[in-house]
C-alpha cells in the first residue's frame, strides 16, 4: 500500500477531541465597515495590508484599513472574465447559478490567498475554479488541470451543492497551489505550476476524510460533519480552519496529515459573540509568524451583543510558535 493511500485511511479512521487542543489567546477584535453585502469569506495579507473577499460579490476585493479598532473596507473592482467549464455536474452548476441569482454572488468566492508578487487568488465554490487578480486589477482564471475536479469527485468530494472548494492557498513563489473541499467529504488537493499552466504531480488529492467532529460544549449539537472553511500556507506547512471544533490545525504539505491543532472556542463561544446558529461562523484564515487572523462571516445574522458587521479576530501565535509540537 502506498504512503499516500495509507495517509487517506488514517485521515478517515483517527478521531480527534476538541478538548485536546490548547486555547489561543485573542489579541484584538475588529468589526469591518464597508463590505456592502457583508459575508466576509476570505482573508490574505498582500503587500502592506490585509485583504478580504465576500462570497456575495463577483467583481470586488477589499483592502482593509486597520488604522482604528473598527476597520474600513476599501473596494477594488475588477472585470470578471468568462468562467471556464471545470467538469462539475450539470445539476450542481445549475443549482449554484440559481442560488447566486437569488442571493447575489454567482461565483461564490470562498477563499483568498496571495503570492510574493501581490497577486490575489480567489476560489469560486460555485465553479470549482481559481481566479488570479494582479496588483493592477487584471483578472484571469487559472488553467487548472481537469484532473482536479475528476479526482476530487472520484474520491467522494465535490458531489453536493454548497459542499465544494472552500479554501485556497498558494506558496510565495506561486509554484504550488492547494485547495480545500469543505465537507461531505472534505479534503485537500494540490497542483504545481508549469509555466502558465498547472498540473498534478503524482495525483491531485492529498487527503480525503469524512466522519464527525466534537463541538464545544456550548453548541446545540454534540457532533457535526467535519468541515474545512479556510486554508493558508505558512512556513512550509498548511493550516486549516475547522469551524465545527473551532480550531486551527497544522498539516503536512506532502499528505495533508494533521500535526497539531489550536482552539479558538473560548473566544467564539463567549456569550456576547454568540450567533443564533448551530454552526461555527469562522470562514477566513491567514497565519503569520506572530499570530493568526480569523474572519467571521455573520451571514446577515446579529450577534448577541448587537454587532451586525463582519468581524476579524487577531490571535497571538501559540507558545513556542506554530511549529511547536503537541
Account of the protein in words:
This protein has a single domain (3-316), classed as Neuraminidase. The protein is globular and about 45 Å long. The chain has four helices and 23 strands. The protein is mainly β and 326 residues long.
Short description:
With 326 residues, this protein is mostly beta strands. The protein has four helices and 23 strands. It has one domain (3-316): Neuraminidase (6 Propeller).
What's the helix and strand layout?
Blueprint: H1 3-13, E1 26-33, E2 40-46, E3 49-54, E4 60-65, E5 71-77, H2 90-103, E6 109-114, E7 120-124, E8 129-133, E9 139-141, H3 147-154, E10 165-170, E11 176-181, E12 186-194, E13 197-199, E14 205-209, E15 212-214, E16 223-225, E17 230-234, E18 237-242, E19 247-251, E20 258-263, H4 265-268, E21 282-288, E22 291-296, E23 311-316
Parallel strand pairs: 1-5
Antiparallel strand pairs: 1-23, 2-3, 3-4, 4-5, 6-7, 7-8, 8-9, 10-11, 11-12, 12-13, 12-14, 15-16, 17-18, 18-19, 19-20, 21-22, 22-23
Shape: globular
The number of distinct β-strands equals 23
Discrete helix count: 4
**How would you characterize the largest beta sheet?**
8 strands, mixed
Strand order of the largest sheet: 2-3-4-5-1-23-22-21
Domain Phytase-like: 37-185
Signal peptide: 1-20
Keywords: Signal
InterPro entries: Phytase-like_dom
Keywords for this structure?
single chain, 326 residues, mainly beta, Neuraminidase, 8-stranded mixed beta sheet, 5-stranded antiparallel beta sheet, 23 strands, Esterase-like activity of phytase family protein, Phytase-like_dom, signal
